[in-house]
Each structure stands twice: as C-alpha cells, then as structure tokens.
Design brief:
The chain is an alpha/beta fold. It folds into two domains: 114 residues, Rossmann fold; 100 residues, Winged helix-like DNA-binding domain superfamily/Winged helix DNA-binding domain (Arc Repressor Mutant, subunit A, Orthogonal Bundle), CATH 1.10.10.10. It has a five-stranded parallel sheet, with helices on both faces. α2 packs parallel to α3 and α6 packs across α8. The protein is globular. The two termini are 35 Å apart.
C-alpha cells in the first residue's frame, strides 16, 4: 500500500518513513502543500498523511484540493490541539486527526482503520430514515431531494460509526463498544473523538443537527439509532448533540 506523507518537518518525515517502511508500506514524501498535491496526482496514493502548517499551501488547502477529485483517505498529523482546527480539517474532508506527539501504535491503528475495507454482501439491506438511505452493501449514503437522490459523502470513520449504529436499530450502543469496533480495544477512553464524529454525522444526516431525531445520545452511556423517531420517540433518549 502506498502512503503519501506531507510535512515540512524533516525529522518527522524521516521518522514516519522509517516506521511505515518497516511495516511494509510504500512511502512517498512531500515537503510543502503544492508538492503534496503534485505527488498525489502523480502517484495516486492509497492514504495521505499531512500536517496543517505547511508552506505554499496549508493543510486545509491541500485537503480541499484533494477532495476536488479523489476520495483517498486523509489522515491529519498535526501539532495543533485546538478543537477548532480539528473541526476545520474534518469539514474540509479529512478522515481522521492525530495530534503530535503521537504513539507509533496509535498511528498504525488509525492507518489500518482508514484503509480497512469489508467485502460487501449482495443481500445487505438498504436502511432508510427521514430522507436518508444507507446502502450497507455499496457503502453509500444518499439523500432524497426534489431534484432526485444526491450522494452524501462520509469519511471511512464516519461510515464505520454509522454502520455500527444502523446495524443495531433502537438498541443502546455504548461508547466503549463503538470505540472498540471502530478504533480498537486500546482506545475505549477516547470519547472526545467519538463526540466529534457524531457531531459531524449529525451535520450531514440530521434535518436539525442541534436537535437530532435519529442519532440520539444516551447520557453517560452511549448512542442509539432511532429510524422511526417521528413515529415513536425512544424513551430515555435525548437529542443532546454530544
């Protein structure tokens, strides 16, 4: 698998190249944003890792440039810890965000999660709620509009979370269960990322993201997918957006 790493820190580039090459990945390097876009066009990587603070084009501009023509998974690896930077990166089209300094095993786990693909089954159902249809076989989400169906783009991580919830309608899915299934058993305390991704999903799928009907929070426990929320409100569930 080919990974493109874009960062202007030579030490980080060297360390990541050694780490990933030792794990069998093919690595290409870009030292600024413009070079990152050029390398992506030339080499068509299977995953892009990039910093936000790069010369020529910053990380957000690179993400936006990539999303104009490719759905390649994008993992931001940045020293910026502010939640606003994370939200901006995810809104621009990034799939995940790791803060520097990072543990090698965490980084490798996130790479595996982003590049993991399941073989779809032809008899998987299409789950509908509101004006949204989730095709579990095709790994696609569409929204009905007056002009016809339009595609809703989800990142691999957003899809993984939605798939777990959709496959367990009306059931409580604990935060620990979601974290284990999406990121692995060693990340069961990383609830901040989970809240962030649920907020992103609600922005894309809920009629009113701040008052969700379908992706509900069970305070202190986890989340519940309520496909028939308009017909039968789930007892105990709350529309709390986090």
């Amino acid at each position: 698998m080919r990974i493109l790493i874009a960062d202007d820190d030579q030490q980080i580039l060297r360390a990541l190249r050694i780490l990933l090459t030792a794990r069998g990945y093919e690595v290409s390097i870009a030292r600024n944003g413009a070079e990152a876009l050029s390398q992506a066009v030339e080499h068509h990587p299977d995953l892009v890792m990039l910093d936000l603070g790069m010369p020529e084009l910053n990380g957000i501009e690179v993400i936006e440039g990539l999303r104009g023509w490719t759905s390649v998974p994008i993992l931001v690896v940045s020293g910026r810890t502010d939640s606003g930077d994370k939200v901006d990166a995810l809104d621009a089209g990034a799939d995940d965000y790791v803060t520097k300094p990072f543990a090698a095993d965490e980084l490798l786990a996130r790479i595996r999660a982003l590049t993991r693909r399941q073989t779809p089954s032809a008899d998987e159902p299409v789950v509908t709620f509101g004006d949204i249809a989730v095709d579990l076989a095709a790994h696609q989400v569409t929204r009905r509009t007056a002009d016809g169906d339009e595609s809703v783009r989800l990142t691999p991580t957003e899809w993984a979370i939605l798939e777990v919830l959709v496959r367990n309608p009306r059931r409580l899915v604990t935060r620990q269960a979601l974290l284990t299934q999406v990121w692995g058993p060693q990340y069961t305390s990383d609830t901040g990322y989970l809240r962030l991704y649920l907020a992103q999903l609600r922005k894309k799928l809920e009629p009113e993201p701040s008052h969700p009907r379908y992706l509900l929070t069970e305070p202190g426990m986890g989340y519940r997918f309520s496909p028939d929320a308009e017909l039968d409100a789930t007892p105990g569930a709350t529309p709390d957006p986090v």
